[in-house]
Amino acid sequence: MMLYKDEDFEDKWTTVPSLMLDDNIYVKVFMIPANLMLRVERCWATPNHDPYSNIQYTFIKDSCPVLTNYQTLAVMKNGRGPEALFRIQMFKFVGSSYRDIFLHCNIQICHSSAGACRPNCSSEDASARRRRDVALSHTVSYGPIKRREVHSDKSILNISVPPVETFVLGGLLVVLLLITGVFGRLWLKSRRSYPTQEAQLTLSNIHHISEVAS
């Protein structure tokens, strides 16, 4: 069993998948060698690696989708070759309760013709599917699939893009530094000119005293 990122089943996940609740999961179940027919009998999800976990969500049963909404679950290929393909949205079996999920499928190898292996998922044939004798099946699993939190993206955004208040405070700080610098220069200038004025005043007093004495 393999997971893909696109509906063409070309971009394969090579790391642990991390998906948001509205993302689609593209699943391929295949066998080697490819000279026989493969049919998926049942697929379900669990919050751990145990396929027999008490918490299960079945989305394919009797080789047919349990869900009727095509946008939520679509079985593109089953019982028509050495591989089965389906797509399902993440939120259908994760919700907001679990961080990890594991997928499991029961598969059957068909030694007969393609027509006999292909499931009939019409509503009229539902009772016949339940009566069908299922040969010994094999279970394949995949996991974990990580649920990506929405707020984690927001926190990254807050770190990379400072809020408006930061720019406002920064601007006020720059203005305050400029004003402080101007007043500092004026104060230093006044301090440098003070001794000269004092010396001029002293010379003027001496000259005045000399005139009085004469």
Automatic annotation (TrEMBL):
Domain ZP: 1-128
Transmembrane annotation, as ranges: 167-188
Keywords per UniProt: Disulfide bond, Membrane, Signal, Transmembrane, Transmembrane helix
Organism superkingdom: Eukaryota
Gene3D superfamilies recorded: Zona pellucida, ZP-C domain (2.60.40.4100)
Name this protein carries in UniProt: ZP domain-containing protein
Keyword Hydrolase: no
